[in-house]
Amino acid sequence: MKALTFSSFGNSDVLEYIEIPNPELKTDEILVEMKAIGLNFADVYRRKGNYHLKGNPPFIAGYEGAGIVVDANNHPEYKVGDRVAFADVPFANAELVAVNTNHVLPLPEAISFETAASILLQGLTAHYLATDSHKTTQGETVLIHAVAGGVGQFLTQISKLLGANVIGLTSSSDKAKVAIEQGADHVFLYNEDWKSHVLEIAPKGVDVVYDSIGSTLADSFKITKECGQVVFFGMAGGDPEPVDPRMLMDGSKTLTGGDLWSYLNSKEERIKRTNQLFSWIIDGKLIPTTPTSFRLSEGKLAHDYLESRKSTGKIILIP
């Protein structure tokens, strides 16, 4: 099979599209022929050598995708030709992937391979943020950092679906337009006095801030109301400053950490959460943006485009 690989860490020049042996199935795995693969910043970090990575050189990144079962490996619940997807299986940047049966997600006919590969990691992240990290309720005001990014777009739509008012923050007017199209009620730019703008809309502060930037954490608390919450789930802008617990006590504020892998902790949880996403999409309540597609053989171009920060939606790789 062909796979997008790298044998040393570095910039996108280390990527190689080469022929490697097919996966050897373990007893608890099935073999999936990939039709679409999600590209994420974690894959860039893996390529650079600063994120967890399984296997030995030549390394294969990727954890998200969709395809067709080509070897059910004597598992009676699957058959050749079944449409499936996964959100947390390594070595996805290849034509064939061995998928543990506990991680297999049945894919409805109404959801395309391309859609599945573009929504799972980011959509499931937005889902747990809005329903677990913070239980969004009707009439709340939420603030979303990086609102035009993949998670930000889903989080905007889900928050609106659950009845919240959404304020977004982003870096450019073009990205602000994207966020408004996704349903955000107000969007401000980071180079503005965004804290003052937010407090004009919500004088007592917002109910919850979703902070994936990290370096903005102190500012996030400044615009959170008493008894409000900040959900910290990423560090795209660098490490946050230490949080003063006295500040939390004085304002009865809550800091919550968020990581998707804490919630994708069983086959039942994976399928339940994914089916909720699929149901919202099928019913027209959640509308994913059309992903930007590259051939798997064009992996270098896809990585360069993702790192350019020019993209506002998902990037997928097509074997």
TrEMBL record:
InterPro entries: ADH-like_C, ADH-like_N, ER, GroES-like_sf, NAD(P)-bd_dom_sf, QOR-like. Transmembrane segments: none annotated. Keywords: NADP, Oxidoreductase. GO terms for molecular function: mRNA 3'-UTR AU-rich region binding; NADPH binding; quinone reductase (NADPH) activity. SMART domains: PKS_ER (SM00829). It comes from the Bacteria. One of its GO terms (cellular component) is cytosol. The keyword 4Fe-4S does not apply. Residues 10-317 form the Enoyl reductase (ER) domain. This is Alcohol dehydrogenase, zinc-binding domain protein. It comes from Flavobacterium aquidurense.
